[in-house]
Automatic annotation (TrEMBL):
Organism expressing this protein natively: Wenzhouxiangella marina
Keyword Transcription on entry: yes
Keywords: DNA-binding, Transcription, Transcription regulation
Alphabetized GO MF terms: DNA binding; DNA-binding transcription factor activity
Pfam families per UniProt: MarR_2
Chain ranges passing through the membrane: none
Stated name of the protein: MarR family transcriptional regulator
Domain of life, per lineage: Bacteria
UniProt cross-references to InterPro entries, sorted A to Z: HTH_MarR-typ (IPR000835), Metal_resp_HTH_trans_reg (IPR052067), WH-like_DNA-bd_sf (IPR036388), WH_DNA-bd_sf (IPR036390)
SUPFAM superfamilies per UniProt: Winged helix' DNA-binding domain
Length: 142
């Protein structure tokens, strides 16, 4: 019988949703961003110039959800799309000045939230968690 409370995919999903909801309050209240929109901004803040397809791959989010978020962020002036000089069909995404300001304002709050969550773990447990998550991520890709 499936013991849902101990089923890893279920537990990871619940944890992910709770963690996302916790930080989502910060960017929803201050900037009117959805979880998907913040993730797009965060990814472009770290990897400027990637395509929407690459955003989808890096985030493991639904392609349609990413596409909608990208469209909304462009319409809001928070990101900009630039055609590739060699392949006009390829579009690169960048944070606009407004998007960079949003990223710069939210990133410290996100890091503080992460630190608060991880505060229940010792330094050794944090390293172990990081290693375990890496291994599970690698196994999930196989």
């Amino acid at each position: 019988m499936l013991d849902l409370e101990h089923f890893l995919p279920y537990r990871l999903s619940v944890l992910s949703n709770q963690v996302s909801a916790g930080i989502a309050r910060t960017y929803a209240e201050r900037f009117g961003l959805s979880v998907t929109e913040w993730r797009v901004i965060a990814i472009l803040g770290r990897f400027p110039g990637i395509s929407a397809t690459e955003v989808t791959e890096r985030s493991a989010m639904d392609k349609v959800a990413v596409s909608r978020a990208v469209r909304r962020l462009i319409d809001q002036g928070r990101i900009r799309r630039q055609a590739n000089a060699e392949d006009r069909r390829a579009k690169h995404l960048f944070l606009s000045d407004q998007g960079q300001s949003v990223f710069d304002a939210i990133a410290p709050a996100a890091l503080a939230y992460e630190e608060e969550l991880l505060g229940v773990l010792s330094a050794s447990e944090r390293r172990q968690l990081d290693a375990l998550l890496d291994r599970l991520l690698e196994a999930s890709r196989a």
